Amino acid sequence: MSVLDNFETWKDFLGDRLHQAQHDGMQDRAVSDLAYEIGDYLAKQVDAKNDQEAVLRDLWNVASPEEQHTIANMMVKLVQNEGTK
């Protein structure tokens, strides 16, 4: 089972990676830039595995680059309290 198959599992996975990056000293700007790159890759290269991912992909595809950065930052906020801890 892929972490992309279930949205809650995906959020936990992202939350774990975010906490690890912050623990390792990654700056907020670097986290934001990386979230943007991941969002862009997923939207272009990975098929949505659930309805939530399909909505995010569709929003990403109609968004301007500035709006895409906003979506990426919102995803970071969404998962900041997630993870397996």
Tell me about this structure.
The chain is built from four helices and no strands. α2 packs across α3 and α2 packs across α4. It has 85 residues and is an all-alpha fold. The longest helix has 18 residues. Helix content is 73%, strand content 0%. The relative contact order is 0.20. It has a single domain, classed as Protein of unknown function DUF3243 (Cytochrome Bc1 Complex, Chain D, domain 2).
Strand-helix topology:
Blueprint: H1 7-23, H2 28-45, H3 51-62, H4 65-79
Helix pairs in contact: 2-3, 2-4
User: What name is given to the CATH topology?
Assistant: Cytochrome Bc1 Complex, Chain D, domain 2
Architecture, according to CATH? Orthogonal Bundle
Task: Determine Rg (CA atoms, Å).
Answer: 12 Å
Give average pLDDT, whole number: 87
Major sheet: none
Number of separate domains: 1
What is the element string, with H for helices and E for strands?
HHHH
CATH class: Mainly Alpha
Low-confidence runs (pLDDT<50, min 5 residues)?
none
CATH homologous superfamily label: Protein of unknown function DUF3243
Structural class: mainly alpha
* Overall form: globular
User: β content, as a range?
Assistant: under 5%
Helix content: over 70%
Number of strands: 0
For the terminal residues, how far apart are their CA atoms? 21 Å
Q: What's the helix count?
A: 4
